[in-house]
Amino acid sequence: MAGAIDKRLQELGVTLPDAPAPAANYIPAVLSGSMLYVSGQLPFGPGGLALTGTLGAGVSIEDANKAAKLCAINILSQAKSVLGDLDRIARIVKLTGFVASTADFGDQPKVMNGASDFLVEVLGDKGRHARSAVGVAALPLNAAVEVEAIIEVA
């Protein structure tokens, strides 16, 4: 039987993919006590990596915003793979977003709104979180965005 969060995802037309496998020597998500730490997720969608490149050098804020949402979808996939039931999420505590950007690009928070808005839309107040949005020179696989999460588990 699907839980409330699964039902909400279904209402939004979002199907969680299988949790992406790690690309190197790390664990994609670690449950320690009541905290779930989800490693940085790239914007993988059904067709592979959805967005590459650099903000301020050809990649639009709108496209990167959508990519950040994909990262959040993958965070939920990782959470489900560890927890079994997304209804165990008590709250998204913190997101850290990394945005591949030029030195003069300063709209990283607008990009990260894609992940933040999605999590609030799915989880309501449990999705409200602290956040950092950091500009970086490059990300793995030339991804435009990467997002990691800290989640409190009930």
Q: How does the SSE layout of this entry go?
A:
Blueprint: H1 4-11, E1 29-32, E2 35-41, E3 44-45, E4 48-49, H2 61-83, E5 89-100, H3 108-123, E6 130-136, E7 145-153
Parallel strand pairs: 5-6
Antiparallel strand pairs: 1-2, 2-7, 3-4, 5-7
Helix pairs in contact: 2-3
CATH superfamily: RutC-like
Q: What is the string of SSEs from the N terminus onward?
A: HEEEEHEHEE
Query: Class in CATH?
Result: Alpha Beta
Number of domains: 1
State the CATH topology. 60s Ribosomal Protein L30, Chain: A
The helix tally amounts to: 3
Structural class: alpha+beta
In the sheet with the most strands, the strands line up as 1-2-7-5-6
Cα(first) to Cα(last) distance is: 19 Å
Q: Describe the largest sheet.
A: 5 strands, mixed
Count of β-strands? 7
Outline type: globular
Instruction: Estimate percent helicity.
Output: 25-40%
The average pLDDT value, as a whole number, equals 96
Q: What integer value in Å does the Rg equal?
A: 15 Å
CATH architecture: 2-Layer Sandwich
**Uncertain segments:** none
Percent strand: 25-35%
Explain this structure.
This is RidA family protein. InterPro entries: Endoribo_LPSP/chorism_mut-like, RutC-like_sf. The protein has a single domain, classed as 2-Layer Sandwich (60s Ribosomal Protein L30, Chain: A), CATH 3.30.1330. Strand 3 and strand 4 form a beta hairpin. With 154 residues, the chain is α+β, with helices and mostly antiparallel strands. Strands 1-2-7-5-6 form a five-stranded mixed sheet. A two-stranded antiparallel ribbon has the order 3-4. It has three helices and seven strands.
